[in-house]
Design a protein that fits this description.
By secondary structure, this protein is an alpha/beta fold. Helices cover about 40% and strands about 15% of the residues. It has one domain: 3-Layer(aba) Sandwich (Rossmann fold), CATH 3.40.50.1820. Strands 1-2-4-3-5-6-7-8 form an 8-stranded mixed β-sheet, with helices on both faces. Helix 3 packs across helix 4, helix 4 packs across helix 9 and helix 6 packs antiparallel against helix 7. The protein starts with 13 loop residues before the first helix and ends with a helix.
Length: about 290
């Protein structure tokens, strides 16, 4: 029997999905929610979001890349957004397999990857495992060779039973407020919180979040970045100078591990510089992907 998390009162099923935006596809581990845009003959780019914020975090980037002529795919990781919340371990193997299966199902062969936060190690691990399928890799404030500092509510995830109780009774508001801490500029917070809450209505969201923490997806990933550095792939790295989620100082480890990396610190922005400073980030990203 699943733990009765407060606020999770809807099921993601075919009837519910018929009223939701985007497209859906059945993969080996469950249904994945995605959006595909831009010209069909455009250079393919795939956007991989982070720990708990679904693909709406790419709204501005998606629009900019499709307008620039790229064929752009964004999707919700399992357990987030409108993708399924399978009863399984939310570990690196699951997320890499989801990306691999999605690319195969949509007939993408070689792509460029853009990974944000937890999407950074997922994109990096995919590149390391399938180097022939990735032409370029861009990372935005990724979980790196040091893990993400955790708030007390997420530290509790490692206490089975206690964490379920905390998230079940009081976790919703604290998760929403914590996620809003990704911003440097408070102007965007209300809009962000409203969109973030939508996914929390569906059964399995908090279970997936706990499993992701327990399977160390936001812990350190030193090996994959060392392996990436041996591939001689073009790699672009952005980092918000005022990031309170993954401190700016973490960027030094990745720069040291990946020779020739193109690194852009972004001033006056937090954990999501592509959103807060899109007028700076998008031209750099587009130029990197095109050349």
């Amino acid at each position: 029997m699943s733990f009765p998390y407060r606020g999770e009162n809807k099921e993601l099923n075919d009837v519910e999905r018929a009223s939701l935006p985007g497209s859906f596809i059945k993969l080996a581990d469950g249904v994945t929610h995605y959006e595909l845009g831009g010209p069909e003959n455009g250079q393919p780019v795939v956007l991989v979001h982070g720990f708990s914020v679904p693909y709406f975090i790419w709204d501005i980037t998606f629009a900019a890349l499709t307008s620039a002529g790229f064929r752009v795919l964004r999707y919700d990781l399992f357990g987030r957004g409108f993708s399924d919340r399978p009863h399984t371990k939310y570990n690196m193997d699951l997320f890499v397999r989801q990306l691999h299966d999605l690319l195969d199902a949509l007939h993408f062969q070689q792509i460029s990857l853009v990974g944000l936060s937890m999407g950074g190690p997922i994109s990096t691990a995919f590149t390391v495992r399938f180097p022939e399928r990735v032409s370029k890799l861009a990372l935005i404030d990724p979980v790196g060779k040091q893990g993400m500092p955790l708030s007390w509510i997420y530290k509790a995830a490692f206490l089975p039973g206690v964490s379920e109780l905390i998230l079940g009774l009081a976790g919703t508001d604290k998760m929403v407020k914590g996620a809003a801490g990704d911003f440097f500029d408070p102007e965007h917070v209300a809009m962000f919180q409203e969109k973030y809450r939508v996914q929390m209505q569906y059964h399995g969201f908090k279970r997936a979040i706990l499993s992701t923490l327990r399977n160390k997806m936001v812990s350190s990933h030193p090996l994959i970045y060392d392996q990436l550095g041996k591939l001689s792939k073009p790699v672009l790295l952005f980092w918000g100078r005022e990031d309170q989620t993954l401190p700016f100082e973490h960027s030094a480890d990745i720069v040291a591990a990946v020779p020739g990396i193109e690194f852009h610190p972004i001033e006056d922005t937090g954990h999501i510089p592509h959103f807060e400073k899109h007028e700076i980030v998008n031209p750099i990203l587009i130029n990197f992907l095109k050349n």
